[in-house]
Amino acid sequence: MAQTAVDPQGGRSGTRRILPVLASIARFVVIVALTLLGLLAVTFFIGRVIPVDPVLAIVGDRAPEHVIERTREELGLNRPIYEQFVIYVGKVLQGDFGTSVLTANPVMTDIRRVFPATLELATLGTLIGSLIGIPLGVFAAVRRGGLLDQIVRIIGLVGYSVPIFWLGLMALVVFYARLGWVAGPGRIDIVYEYTLSPVTGILLLDTAMQGQWDAFWNALSHLILPASLLGYFSLAYISRMTRSFMLNELSQEYVVAARAKGLSEARIIWRHALRNALVPLVTVIALSYAGLLEGSVLTETVFAWPGLGLYITNSLQNADMNAVLGGTVVIGAVFIGLNLLSDLLYGLLDPRTRRS
C-alpha cells in the first residue's frame, strides 16, 4: 500500500497561522477581564467612600444599636475592605447585586425591568441622530464654507452648549402644554399600562406584536419628544464628526484620480468617500449610542421616563447604594461591550487594520 507523505513544514506553517489568532483572542479576553475588574473596583470603592451608611438606609437611623451591628455583620460590612471587595466581585459574577432598599427586589430584577425602556429611548435617539446627522455632515463637507455648512456647525455648537434638561423642559412647555402635539411625561397612558402583557419590555414592539395599535400610537406619542431630544444631541455629534471625516477623505489622492477618470461627483462622494469615512464613523455611532444609554439620566428625569437613568436617580436620592452600584456596573459593561463591538466592526470594514 502506498503511504501518504507528511510535510512537516506544512504542519509548522499551520501552527504559525493559528498561534497569532489564539494570542489575539487571549489578549481580547484579558483586556475585557481587566476592564470589567477595574470597573467593579471603581464602583465598589465609590460606594464605600460616599458618606452614606447602607445599614442605616436599611434599618433606619433610629434602630437599636444591636440591630445595626447585626445587620452590618449580615452584610459583611464589618470585614476588611479587601475581603468585602472579593465577596462583591464574586456576587457580581453570579449576577447578584444585592437587594434594593427602595423596592425590596433583587437589583438585577429591577434592572431587567427598567433597562428595556432606556434601550428603546436610546436606540430611537441614535437612529434619528444617524439618519439625519450623516447626510448633514456629508453635505456640509461637500459645500464647505457655504450656508448649509454654517447651519450644521451652529447645530453642533448648540447641541454641545445648551443643557439637555433645559431643552427638555422647553420642549414639554411648547409641544405638550401649548400645542398638544405629543403626549406628556411617562411612557404610556395608564389606560393602556395594565392591558399589556410584556414580552420584550420594549413597548413599540410589544404593542405591535399584540396588535394593540391604539396603545402603540400612544406609546409612540410619549416616545417622540424625549427620543427627538436625545436624537438632536446625537445628531450634533455625528454630523460634526461626519463632516470632519468627509473633509479628510475628499482631500485624498484617490478622489482626485476618480475625478480625472470622469466619475460623477455623486458616485465619488457617496460610493467612495463616504464608504471610507464609514469606517471610523462606526466607532463614533457606537460611542454616541453608549453615551445615550448611560447619559439619559437627565432626560429620563425630566420626562418621567421609567428607565435605568430614573431608577438610578431615585435610588441615589433614597441612599439605595446597591441599586446605584448595580445600575452603574450595568451601564459600564454596556459601554465596554459597545466599544469592543465597534473595534471588531472597524476591523471588518477596514481590512488594513487586521493583523496577519
UniProtKB/TrEMBL annotation:
Location of this chain's protein in the cell: Cell membrane
List the molecular function annotations (GO) for this entry. Answer: dipeptide transmembrane transporter activity
Q: Main site of residence?
A: membrane
List the PROSITE patterns hit by this protein, alphabetically: ABC_TM1 (PS50928)
Q: Which GO terms describe its cellular component?
A: plasma membrane
The UniProt keywords, alphabetically, are: Cell membrane, Membrane, Transmembrane, Transmembrane helix, Transport
The record's annotation in InterPro entries points to: BPD_transp_1_N, MetI-like, MetI-like_sf
- Membrane recorded as keyword: yes
This protein's membrane topology, according to the annotation, is:
Multi-pass membrane protein
Q: Which positions, given as ranges, span the membrane?
A: 21-46, 121-142, 154-177, 215-238, 277-305, 325-349
Q: Where is the ABC transmembrane type-1 domain?
A: 115-346
Q: Which family does it belong to?
A: Belongs to the binding-protein-dependent transport system permease family.
Protein's name in the database:
Peptide ABC transporter permease
